[in-house]
Amino acid sequence: MNEGPYKLPEGWRWVRLGEVCDYKSGVWAQADPDGIPVLRSTDFLPDGSLSYGTAIRLALSEKQLRKSILQPGDILLERSGGGPNKPVGRVAYFQGQGTYCFGNFITCLRVSRADVEPKFLFYYLFHFHISGRTEPLQTQTTNIRNLRFNEYLAITIPLPPLEEQKRIVAHLQEVQEKIKALKEAQDQTEEKLKRLEQAILNKAFRGEL
């Protein structure tokens, strides 16, 4: 596609999310202390990483294991959940630390093209959520919010050349480390740091870094 919400730098192009990744839904089973660790949205951390130690262990069948085992670079999407001040659509990045599966309120996005860096796509979807853009894509029942997934797959992604994606990823990882250090070293509010991160992410996806 050639058109998007703003003009891109030379060499960048707009793509739809559904054009660059495959997806599959999660699983559920009876709890079992000797079972397979299964990640849930409660294991998503604010910076998009995962709390592996809090994963629940479930008695998955071989079929369920094959269906939902995660690979390095997978992006976990919270498809159902959210809360009063937390729109559904959070994402987390799976680094590939051992054998893990994912639960039934989560969809796994897996990059399907060689010209897309998985961590770049993760950072864009992370930015998409924290900037409030999943809010119009959700429906709400009494106690839970659901992401309108087909509409989510249709969102547009500003895609630079692969080497530029890698440069942006390296820069954003450095920014995250600095923010982490600020959180540990200074008594700053989370809201100020969130605005800083959001401003930098916004520049990254406009080619302004």
Automatic annotation (TrEMBL):
Domain Type I restriction modification DNA specificity stretches: 9-185
GO molecular function: DNA binding; endonuclease activity
Source taxon at top rank: Bacteria
Alphabetized UniProt keyword annotations: Coiled coil, DNA-binding, Endonuclease, Hydrolase, Nuclease, Restriction system
Coiled coil: 165-202
GO biological process: DNA restriction-modification system
InterPro entries named among the record's database cross-references: Restrct_endonuc_typeI_TRD, Restrct_endonuc_typeI_TRD_sf, Type-I_RE_S_subunit
Family designation: Belongs to the type-I restriction system S methylase family.
Protein name: Restriction endonuclease subunit S
Organism, as annotated: Pseudothermotoga hypogea
